[in-house]
Amino acid sequence: MPSPRKAKYVEYYVKDVAEDDIKPPSASELEKVLKIKLNVGDIVNFGDYRQSGCYFVGGSDEHRVMVKNPDNSGSGYLTIPMVISKKFPNVLSHYSNVITKLDNQITDVEIPNEDVMINKLFKESEIKNNAYFAYYPLENQLIVRYKRKMMMVDLTMDQKFKKDNQKSIEKFFGLGTPTPQVGIVMNDSPPKKPKNLKNKLKSLFARKKN
């Protein structure tokens, strides 16, 4: 069985043209110039400053369009946007060669809810279908945004996806069964009054009068 296709990263600099003024040709025109086949998800860098001149081949195989790097960092680095990443079941695997090549030039990968990583980490959790996920390769961290709260999940190389991860994340976002804290009794029933409270209050006030 052949290994899954990886994304291509191609450099085609346009001299003396600012990145903001670049008007990329169509994927078909680029194929003629570059003499390579461009597939959906492939990246062409037209600029010479970081990754600010990058465009993705988007759309579909039948109707390809060029999608500009959204650059969530605002500093000229590469962001793989959701409109591209949702086309692949395992986006980090598809772009693993690009992530390795660019190293600190890629800041974040927006991860779709149905991605292999999200399915492994969250399974049937409510978070899986309702949160926003983004992976930061340099820090090896997954950002989870849910209901106006954000959490950073450390994904070390030897870490496996365990139920403990899901439980701790759900607890942070206020989901699942709350864990009682030490010294606090989780009880919805009203507190009971001490026995003989009325008599104790009478004797207390009697002493004060004296």
How many H/I helical runs? 8
Order of helices and strands: EHEEEEHHHEHHEEEHH
Task: Give the strand content.
Answer: 15-25%
pLDDT < 50 runs, ≥5 residues: 177-194
Describe the fold and architecture.
- By secondary structure, the chain is an alpha+beta fold.
- 28% of the residues lie in helices and 20% in strands.
- The chain is built from 8 helices and 9 strands.
- The chain has a 5-stranded mixed β-sheet.
- Strand 7 (132-136) and strand 8 form a beta hairpin.
- The protein is elongated.
- Residues 177-194 have low confidence and may be disordered.
Which descriptors would you attach to this protein?
single chain, 210 residues, 4-stranded mixed β-sheet, 8 helices, 9 strands
In short:
The chain has eight helices and nine strands.
Topology:
Blueprint: E1 9-11, H1 27-34, E2 43-45, E3 54-59, E4 64-68, E5 78-80, H2 82-85, H3 91-94, H4 96-102, E6 106-111, H5 116-122, H6 126-130, E7 132-136, E8 141-146, E9 149-154, H7 163-172, H8 197-209
Parallel strand pairs: 1-2, 5-6
Antiparallel strand pairs: 2-3, 3-4, 6-7, 7-8, 8-9
